[in-house]
Amino acid sequence: MSAYERQMSGGTAPRRVFSLALLSALLCSTALVGASGNAAAFEIFGIKLWGSSEDEDADIVDPLRYAVTIEAPDADEDLAEKLENASALKDDEERPVSGSLGLLAKARADRDQLVAALYADARYEGVVTITIEGKPLDDLPPDAEFSGPQPIPVVINIATGPKFTLGDIRLEGDAAGLAGADFGLIAGGDAGSGAVLKAEASIVRALKEEGRPLAKVTDREIVADHATSTLDVTLTVAAGPVAGYGDTTVEGTEKVDRDFTEYMTGLKRGRQYSPEEIDEARDRLLGLEVFNSVTLKEADGLDADGNIPIGVEVSERKPRYFGLGGTFSNTEGLGLEGYWGHRNLFGRAEKLRIEGEISGIGSNELTELNYNAGIMFEKPGMVGPASKFFAGVSTVLEHPDAYDNFSVKGNTGLSYELDKQQTVSAEVALDYSKITDSFGKHTYLIASVPLRYVYDNRDNRLNPTTGFRALAYAEPSYDILNGAAFVKLRGEGSAYQSLYAASKFVLAERVAIGSIIGAGLQDVLADRRFYSGGGGSVRGYAYQGIGPKDAHGEPIGGLSFFETSVEMRIAITDTIGVVPFVDAGTVSTKQFPDFSDIQVGAGVGLRYITPFGPLRIDAAVPLNRGPDDPHFGIYAGIGQAF
């Protein structure tokens, strides 16, 4: 056994003291190496569209190829997967290293990463042995040359050893009055290095939540008792004094106003320090969409007034952007959209966005395509950092089966974040419309006051795996030309639950209900009635195909609706997923949904995960198909269905 192996196995001593700082560094190095790969070729759905391995290897001096075998006979399936994922040698096996020195350096780094993975699983007696061309890594000279036939054989042998549990737990210093169990430190509990580090962070966070910005762990003693396979943990913590916010200084701004950036943090001098407010300030600055990165740091000490200065470091994004997008369905045709925007119009994160859309291509006649164009403006921080002023003008010319509509709408309003998860908004809008539907031709001038409340604690807005989103919407409206008054009400909720580690199975559920009260069906604009069916609601049916119809079989909309959907999002790989789903919905001319007339569609979808959201393709069939319903529907777009 080499000196390195003896150090890792602890075979020469029954108890061993660990440095959690070392464990933390090893864990961080694993994460950094795992995220450092660059791809010169382009692949989608596992298919390489351009580029080649030769292109990727062109910048490598003296390329040397190797083949890795990982042997971990004592590891269960879960640990074996973790070890393989921690191995950069395995992850980069298709990409050569730079000569023999490159292979040696990669092997040594890999050993540290694998040891960190063992520690994370509480395997403190684990031994990692790496051989290259049959020779142990520690026996190879620093200038070893591997001249055998390529790929060079590399064997990683891992003896995992027993899994440790926590033994004696002691919190000392200002943490002496805290209970270790509250932070996951329980005798007989998880002794993985990650669990211990998480407990440390939680203890410090708990003290900081008392308004103590200088709280920190001042000493730690981690002792592994190999005779009992337990890990004794002693943590000494200094809480530091309660303090308020000092000066907030901003660095890194160029085109964004520095004083505005400081204002948007919302950290008022003298108010008691709160780590939650620091997190909210960071999220608020990122939400301005003018910064690539935002870092908030407390100073190492208090100022002369006993307050903690806060430093803000930012890096700016390019202010202008543009893009193209599209959707497709065999029942709704092709839709194309384009947009141009400016994120920082006057230097204080004001947003201007101009967009246009054409839809119905392939399903409508050329003279009956749908057009939508709009200009939107936003100004954050109008009445406090949590507020946002918005205004917009849009025009629509559309020809769905239910009606023909030309309208011009203007709106202005204010939204306010009550907290990190809750947002309210109110606006005033004026909408001039000319609509032809089953009830004839009508002209409307609608003044309305849309009110909205949103609760959203999803872990990811683009591809959620846990959390809940709820929407409550009310829109009192008055038709100035015709004298009709009505209120449109809508509620919607969606929930997400991860059923397996690493979110390989995510159950997603959605329910929505709405009602229009105060007016009859003919008095409500056709484009404000409720409809259901199509890619955004009940898949398998035509767009607006669910609900009451006129004598010609065309939808007329309703005064109420109900929809629900259930999806099981299954991750096949890190980028590819399969989604079986069931949708259901109903539309009624009454003010309350008719649950006796539910239409149901079911199908399966394919997802390809990208940084800007999942690419989605869904195929569905109507389960209680009517004579006018399609036999199936195919839908493509960007983002999850809900």
From TrEMBL:
Query: What subcellular compartments does it reside in?
Result: Membrane
Query: May I ask which residue range the UniProt record assigns to the signal sequence?
Result: 1-35
User: Record keywords: NADP included?
Assistant: no
Q: Looking at the Swiss-Prot or TrEMBL record, what is one Pfam family this protein matches? A: Omp85
Primary residence: membrane
Q: Which InterPro entries match?
A: Bac_surfAg_D15 (IPR000184), D15-like (IPR039910)
Alphabetical keyword list: Membrane, Signal, Transmembrane, Transmembrane beta strand
Task: Please give the superkingdom of this protein's source.
Answer: Bacteria
**Domain called Bacterial surface antigen (D15): residue spans:** 344-642
Q: State what protein this is by name.
A: Outer membrane protein assembly factor
Q: What are the top taxonomic ranks of the organism? A: Bacteria, Pseudomonadati, Pseudomonadota, Alphaproteobacteria, Hyphomicrobiales
